[in-house]
Structures are given as structure tokens and as C-alpha cells.
Amino acid sequence: MSRTAFRRVCAAVTGSLLVFSLAACGPAEPELGHDAAKRLQSRVLTVTDLAAANDPAGALVALFELEEQLEAAGANGEVSFKRHQSIMTAIEAVRTDLLAAQSAAQAKAAAEAAAASASPTPTAPQEGKVEEPKKDESGKDNKGGDDGKGKDD
Predict the structure, then answer these.
(1) Burial of 62 (0-12, 13-18, 19+ CB in 10 A)
(2) What is the pLDDT along the chain (153 residues), one digit of tens a residue?
(3) What is the largest CA-CA distance in the chain?
(4) C-alpha span between 69 and 31 (Å, rounded)
(5) What is the CA radius of gyration of the chain?
(6) Residues 40, 78: contact at Cβ < 8 Å?
(7) Is 26 left (phi over 0), alpha (psi -120 to 50) or beta?
(8) Strands (E), 48-143
(9) Are 43 and 65 in contact (CB under 8 A)?
(10) Rounded to an integer, what distance in angstroms lies between the CA atom of residue 67 and that of residue 93?
(11) How far apart are CA 63 and CA 59, in angstroms?
(12) At what angle do helices 81-118 and 56-75 cross, to 10 degrees?
């Protein structure tokens, strides 16, 4: 993952984390319940750790699980519609960055594999092995020449 992509992923994940951490501060009717915030924060940290470990595929799986938890919290009334939408926007931004990082990693791996297979491994010539001419049944060299002796003569 390039530094720029990594920074964007970390910034998006950190932004999401800040959104979740501010859930406790707000009006009497919270936009994000305390328990839901803790569960979602835990999942955000997993995404962050995997992205930092240069594992975009693992981070995408964790991001999908985060999205599932968000949907469940929304269905249970633990997340307001407005907060759900803002979190989904952050998730989509992170997903875009992770997919780009994954594509870049796959392209790099494919290029390395192509380069490795394109450069042949040098082989040492076999020393001392000289091919001798083949002989026919009579023990004479079979060089393909016609010495005039044949069955038709």
C-alpha cells in the first residue's frame, strides 16, 4: 500500500473513530447508543490494525463486518438515521481506499511474478557429453549417406 493510500485509509478510519467516540456527548436522545458505539469502535480498530499491517483484504472483511454491525444497530434503534448515514459515508470512503490498495498490491504481485517467470534461470552446460552418431543394425554409422550398398543392388 502506498504511503498516500495508507494515510487516507488511516485518516478515514480515524475520522470514523472520532465520530463514534463523540457519541456519548450530545442531546438526551443519543444518535448512537453507548453499547453500539463500543461495538462499532472495536470493529473500527480492527479495520485500522489490518490496514496498518498492509492487509487490505483482511481490512475489507473487517469493514464488511463493521457494516453488518452498523445495520444491526440501526435496526435495533441504537443508531439514528443521520448518524447511520454519516458512518456509512465513512465506511464507503474507507472501502474505496482499501480496494485501491488491494488492486495496487495485486498488480505489484502480478508484475513481480511476471518478471520472475520472464527471466530464465541460467543452466550450466553439460560438460563432457558429446553425442555420438547413431549406428544402424550392422554397427555402421548412420549418417544418412548412401554408400551404394542396398537391398536393391
Answers:
(1) buried
(2) 566 666 666 666 656 555 555 554 555 567 888 999 999 999 999 999 999 998 999 999 999 999 999 999 999 999 999 999 999 999 999 999 999 989 988 898 889 888 888 766 556 556 656 566 666 666 665 555 555 555 555
(3) 118
(4) 15
(5) 34
(6) no
(7) left
(8) none
(9) yes
(10) 13
(11) 6
(12) 160
Cell representation of residue 140: 555402421
Number of residues that this document lists for the chain: 153
Beta-bridge partners for 32: 79
Query: What is the spatial distance between Cα 25 and Cα 23, in angstroms, rounded to a whole number?
Result: 5
Residues 17, 38: contact at Cβ < 8 Å?
A: no
C-alpha to C-alpha distance for 102 and 98, rounded to whole angstroms? 6
E strand or H helix at 33: none
Rounded CA gap, 41 and 16, in Å?
Answer: 8
Chain centroid to CA 7: how far?
18
Spell out the residues 6+ positions from residue 63 whose beta carbon is closer than 8 angstroms to its own: 47, 91, 94, 95, 98
